[in-house]
């Protein structure tokens, strides 16, 4: 690899810092961000810190917290993990009972502090902070329109488009201005807005991105996943409904309103398959239990005689346990993830990059040597990761490697807040299952059917796709999208 090409792979301070973590070894899909909010608790900043820590899997590039106490408006943001961005000193400056926080993973634009959230704005109504998870696929058109009218944008963020719409609203009441702005945008989102004395939570009319409300004492909590409530000692109250707008202030408490009726309900299926933590619940369905059912269904659809079942850590472990329970084949930890690689200044050569999978993943030779192995994974994106892991198992002595995927073939890009390659880079969009099997060097390959997936998740069969977005599998998008919609995201 030439020095010029090598340099393009590393533009931040660390080799695996910034966009895509510069990690070509693992072509997993990535969630873009997570949000956490506290209203009415004296330890709002500290609670947000622990809440964001629980949501760290949703974004590792930057983190931020903004706190309001009725008169003051303070915030701190930084690049890196939550534990790297915050310490006792900067958390000590964030005093107040209301806060919103954000962890971010970018898909487009530069990896820089200006794009870290919450984004902070000043307008005629005072200070405004916004944090969001998702993607506004018509933000580009609105931005062009606003720029033609004189607006000047400071970031490459879709979120800033919403701030400009709020600032231009004729409504002085922030809730009415937010409603007006949300009626202009299209896409997937979970928004938290914070002023000096109010907090507003809103979820897109399709409910594409997860968003939940909890309680802690007399205070209210909001998060992308319920696991964040457990981290702070809070309790789950309910999901924020699609199209719902919740307004909280000290005078009126919680006011339940909406800016849109529920449209075709379409919670992202990949949240259940891969993104959410196993201890989280989405729409009152536990993620670990749903993944175990996927594994069981996968076994019913694609049994193969083998000696051991193993899952690719971490998101595939639950499905692997389900597959093993259904088939009676022993589940073993055939693959071990190294959790302490951290970030490194060292930029490896191409040869070391090819071997680098062993830095993050190891096969347990004594478990797989001489064995027929069923390897469970949650998805295949480009196929490069699957090939490396199959070869890792073969090098450790596995006599056969049968790959089972607990989702349908991933054929289409996502425009709703997930970082995905272009369609031409998705191996399932270009190759048949048999061609993919050969490409990843597996003895056999089977994907879970869409029907099996939806039944395994367990939502009632009364809505289209049981109320899930399955566009990445079937190209049926719940909203209007264009290929240009993939450029940028609400977190960029």
From TrEMBL:
Q: What EC number(s) are associated with this protein in UniProt?
A: 2.4.2.14
What does the record give under GO molecular function? amidophosphoribosyltransferase activity
Q: What pathway does the UniProt record associate with this protein?
A: Purine metabolism; IMP biosynthesis via de novo pathway; N(1)-(5-phospho-D-ribosyl)glycinamide from 5-phospho-alpha-D-ribose 1-diphosphate: step 1/2
**Which reaction(s) are listed as its catalytic activity?**
5-phospho-beta-D-ribosylamine + L-glutamate + diphosphate = 5-phospho-alpha-D-ribose 1-diphosphate + L-glutamine + H2O
Q: Which residues bind [4Fe-4S] cluster?
A: 268, 414, 469, 472
> Does the keyword Membrane belong to this entry?
no
Query: Mind listing the UniProt keywords for this protein, alphabetically?
Result: 4Fe-4S, Glutamine amidotransferase, Glycosyltransferase, Iron, Iron-sulfur, Magnesium, Metal-binding, Purine biosynthesis, Transferase
- What does the record note about the cofactor? Binds 1 [4Fe-4S] cluster per subunit.
Domain Glutamine amidotransferase type-2: start-end pairs: 33-251
The residues the record assigns to binding Mg(2+) are 315, 377-378
Q: Which InterPro entries match?
A: GATase_2_dom, Ntn_hydrolases_N, PRTase-like, PRTase_dom, PurF, PurF_N
Cofactor(s) recorded in Swiss-Prot or TrEMBL = [4Fe-4S] cluster; Mg(2+)
Instruction: Provide the active-site residues from the annotation.
Output: 33
Q: Pfam family example for this protein?
A: Pribosyltran
Q: Which family does it belong to?
A: In the C-terminal section; belongs to the purine/pyrimidine phosphoribosyltransferase family.
| NCBIfam families attached to this UniProt entry | purF
What is the documented function of this protein? Catalyzes the formation of phosphoribosylamine from phosphoribosylpyrophosphate (PRPP) and glutamine.
Would you tell me the protein name for this molecule?
A: Amidophosphoribosyltransferase
State the organism named in the record. Answer: Paenibacillus konkukensis
- Organism phylogeny: Bacteria, Bacillati, Bacillota, Bacilli, Bacillales
């Amino acid at each position: 690899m030439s020095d010029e090409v090598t340099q393009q792979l590393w533009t931040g301070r660390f080799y695996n810092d910034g966009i895509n973590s510069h990690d070509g070894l693992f072509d997993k899909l990535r969630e873009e961000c997570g949000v956490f909010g506290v209203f009415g608790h004296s330890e709002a900043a500290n609670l947000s810190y622990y809440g964001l820590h629980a949501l760290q899997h949703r974004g590792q590039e930057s983190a931020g917290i903004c706190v309001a106490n009725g008169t003051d408006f303070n915030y701190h943001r930084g690049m890196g993990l939550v534990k790297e961005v915050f310490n006792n000193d900067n958390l000590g400056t964030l005093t107040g009972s209301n806060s919103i926080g954000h962890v971010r993973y970018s898909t487009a634009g530069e990896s820089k502090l200006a794009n870290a959230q919450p984004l902070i704005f000043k307008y005629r109504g005072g200070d405004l902070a916004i944090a969001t998870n998702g993607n506004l696929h018509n933000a580009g058109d609105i931005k062009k329109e606003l720029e033609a009218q004189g607006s000047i944008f400071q970031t490459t963020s879709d979120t800033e488009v919403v701030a400009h719409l709020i600032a231009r609203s004729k409504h002085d009441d922030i809730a009415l201005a937010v409603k007006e702005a949300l009626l202009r945008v299209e896409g997937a989102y979970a928004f938290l807005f914070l002023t000096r004395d109010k907090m507003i939570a809103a979820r897109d009319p399709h409910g594409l991105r997860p968003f939940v409300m909890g309680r802690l004492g007399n205070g209210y909590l909001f998060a992308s996943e319920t696991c964040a409530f457990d981290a702070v000692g809070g309790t789950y109250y309910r999901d924020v409904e699609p199209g719902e707008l919740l307004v909280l202030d000290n005078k009126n408490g919680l006011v339940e309103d909406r800016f849109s009726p529920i449209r075709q309900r379409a919670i992202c299926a990949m949240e259940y398959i891969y993104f959410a933590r196993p201890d989280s619940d989405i729409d009152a369905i536990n993620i670990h239990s749903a993944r175990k059912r996927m594994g069981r269904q996968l076994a019913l659809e694609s049994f193969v005689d083998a000696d051991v079942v193993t899952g690719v850590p971490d998101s595939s472990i639950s499905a692997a346990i389900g597959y093993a329970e259904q088939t009676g084949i022993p589940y073993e930890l055939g693959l071990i993830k190294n959790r302490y690689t951290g970030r490194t200044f060292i930029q490896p050569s191409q040869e070391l990059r090819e071997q680098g999978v062993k830095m993050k993943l190891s096969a347990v030779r004594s478990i797989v040597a001489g064995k027929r192995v069923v390897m469970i994974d949650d998805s295949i994106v480009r196929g490069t990761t699957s090939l490396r892991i199959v070869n890792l198992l073969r090098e450790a002595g596995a006599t056969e490697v049968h790959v089972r995927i607990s989702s349908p073939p991933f054929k289409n890009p996502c425009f709703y807040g997930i970082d995905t390659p272009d369609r031409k880079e998705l191996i399932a969009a270009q190759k048949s299952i048999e061609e993919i099997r050969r490409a990843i060097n597996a003895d056999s390959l089977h994907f879970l059917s869409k029907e099996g997936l939806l039944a395994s998740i367990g939502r009632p069969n009364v809505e289209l796709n049981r109320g899930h977005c399955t566009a990445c599998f079937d190209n049926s998008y719940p909203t209007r999208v264009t290929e240009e919609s993939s450029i940028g995201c609400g977190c960029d």
